[in-house]
Design brief:
about 400 residues, alpha/beta, Rossmann fold, 2 domains, 5-stranded parallel beta sheet, 13 helices, 19 strands, binds flavin mononucleotide, decarboxylase
């Protein structure tokens, strides 16, 4: 359980803060809501008190004996300000402490995430943009607002991102560590493939594999949280797109190859986390394969090799691009997991290889993982057991150290 401070600014989107609060409490966190006085003109304190189970005050003159204006910030694990109004961004950037929320922002040692919501003109105004730049320079994460319908008939950038997406980002920060909120991948373009390809046998059946896509999703989510522009080529995965990530759905290895090669030429990093089928049926039946009356009569499936997408990416990579492969390995008589992985790294020629020991099927579909990152220069970095977001954060740390 973490202690989250949910700051709420006085904008129409304040009603969505109640949904965000709900997502935090349902994830088991202790949430202290600190609205501005203006926020309480949109949503009543009773809503925040009832949903959080904690008292709600806006000024520094309540609970004076507990020195709340200092203590709430000091003891927080994460501060999320949603919605962050133009006025609140200005007051935070100026270092004001004229209400409980801004005082809390000045005393918080933990990561701080601002989630702005306002009309497009207010967001694009140089004063707001300067304030955002100041807050980012000081280490806060300021999310770009979503684009869409605003209050009234207007639409454009300024919408509050979906509360579920903000909650997912907070979860990443709390499980993968505050480093993920450093915008150290800002300006970088990243392509991640995830999931498992499906090779059709007939209109109903396919040859697939057990990859759930969760590790690839985590890699994309963490890269986006760190400020990268992320394209996620998703093979056979039906998970909601992580916030700020563009998902390109694919089915077969050939479709994945086409999508990854189309997206990768101007990428700084390509991470091939998808499990791409090595083989596919030589032919796909146009109609469903039927059982014959004679039980001994079964169809023969002939397989042919699929293209090696990772090897092709390595061969075609532009100068400076980093290519990261994944290897799901099991040990056997020919060698242990790392021996197989080292041979794969040498064979494929990629810069980094993230190795998962999948003996016993322990990784697929689970929320946690552990890995070893092998580098072409011979180094091996152990990634300890943790959530797939934490593993993703460690992988990006290794990638970042090698980016030009
Ligand atoms: C109906 C209405 C909606 C508003 N919506 C927003 C908004 O979405 N974003 C924003 O920055 N300001 C909005 N404002 C203006 C803020 O309420 C105003 O700047 C206020 O001083 C913000 O106070 P705070 O930053 O302390 O919460 C709105 C005002 C009204 C009356």
């Amino acid at each position: 359980m973490s202690r989250i401070v949910l700051g709420v600014g006085g904008g129409v989107a304040a009603y969505k803060a109640a949904l965000l609060l709900r997502a935090f409490t349902e994830a088991g966190h202790d949430v202290r809501v600190v609205p501005t006085p203006a926020a309480l003109r949109f949503v009543g304190a009773a809503t925040f008190e009832a949903l959080s189970g904690n008292p709600v005050t806006t000024d520094v003159w309540s609970d004076v004996d507990e020195v709340a204006h200092v203590r709430i910030g000091q003891t927080a694990d994460l501060v999320v300000v949603a919605p962050a109004t133009a006025d609140l961004l200005a007051r935070a950037a100026a270092g004001r402490a004229d209400d409980l929320l801004t005082a809390t922002l000045l005393t918080a040692h933990c990561p701080v995430v601002f989630v702005p919501a306002m009309h497009t003109e207010m967001w694009l105004h140089p004063a707001t943009q300067d304030n955002v730049a100041t807050l980012r320079r000081r280490g806060s994460l300021v999310l770009p607002p979503a684009v869409g319908r605003l209050t009234g008939p207007d639409s454009g950038p300024g919408r509050l991102p979906e509360p579920a997406d903000v909650a997912a980002l907070a979860h990443v920060a709390l499980t993968a560590g505050p480093d993920v909120l450093r915008a150290d991948l800002a300006g970088r373009r990243v392509v991640v493939s995830a999931g498992g390809t499906r090779e059709p046998l007939d209109p109903v059946r396919y040859l697939g594999n057990r990859s759930s896509g969760k590790q690839g999703w985590a890699l994309a989510r963490v890269a986006a949280a760190r400020g990268a522009e992320v394209v996620l080529v998703a093979a056979g995965v039906d998970l909601p797109a992580p916030f700020g990530v563009r998902v390109v759905p694919v089915g077969t290895a050939e479709e994945l190859r086409t999508a990854v090669l189309a997206e990768s030429p101007d990428a700084d990093v390509v991470v091939m986390a998808a499990a791409v089928a090595d083989f596919r049926p030589a032919s796909v039946a146009a109609t469903k394969l039927k059982k014959k009356d004679d039980p001994r009569e079964v169809p023969e499936v002939r397989l042919v090799r699929n293209p090696d997408v990772l090897a092709e990416l390595v061969a075609k990579r532009p100068p400076g691009q980093l290519v990261v492969g994944f290897a799901a390995e099991t040990g056997d008589d020919d060698g242990d997991v790392l021996a197989h992985a080292r041979a794969k790294l040498a064979r494929k020629g990629c810069d980094l290889l993230v190795v998962n020991d999948v003996s016993g099927g322990g990784v697929f579909g689970r929320p946690d993982n552990a890995a070893v990152v092998l580098a072409a220069d011979g180094t091996a970095t152990e990634v300890p057991h943790g959530s797939k977001d934490a593993v993703a954060a460690a992988v990006w740390q290794t990638v970042l150290a090698r980016l030009p």
